[in-house]
């Protein structure tokens, strides 16, 4: 990946809806060349998907919590069980005192409590420790540079 690819990614992260002509102009390429480079970045898996960044509060999901999940067994085969809990927006197998870290978004703390109950229903889960976020200073995408 060269500097032009990195600039293309940065531009797409800023605004993925811009036309290839505008994208190319921003990085010094023709529209066709920009399109071809983006296509290759997708083929190589550098660009995994194009999505919309929405405000969770506007969608009624204002409660954000990170939950450390303890287990009595290896949880590496449990991805589908975690994915089945729609309020979980990220799940990671981790090293450390817990086995899995999940990011949860709900409308209320009552709903968060329900998510915690459902986590206990996943085979191997033996405990949870939730940290509720009071304020988010910032969130950012991975920088291409």
Tell me what the structure shows.
- It is built from five helices and four strands.
- Strand 2 (88-93) and strand 3 form a beta hairpin.
- With 145 residues, the chain is of the alpha+beta class.
- Helix 2 packs across helix 3.
- A four-stranded antiparallel sheet has the order 2-3-1-4.
- It is elongated.
- The protein starts with a helix and ends in a 13-residue tail after the last strand.
Helix-strand blueprint:
Blueprint: H1 3-14, H2 20-27, H3 31-43, E1 63-71, H4 79-83, E2 88-93, E3 100-106, H5 109-120, E4 125-132
Antiparallel strand pairs: 1-3, 1-4, 2-3
| Cross-sheet strand order for the largest sheet | 2-3-1-4
Radius of gyration based on Cα positions: 19 Å
Secondary-structure-derived class: alpha+beta
Please state the average pLDDT score.
95
Describe the biggest sheet?
Answer: 4 strands, antiparallel
Uncertain stretches of 5 or more adjacent residues:
none
> How large a portion of the residues is in β-strands, by DSSP E?
15-25%
- Helical percentage: 25-40%
Distance from first to last alpha carbon: 10 Å
Query: Number of helical runs?
Result: 5
Q: SSE order in H/E notation?
A: HHHEHEEHE
Which key terms come to mind for this protein?
single chain, 145 residues, alpha+beta, four-stranded antiparallel sheet, 5 helices, 4 strands, 34% helix, 21% strand, elongated
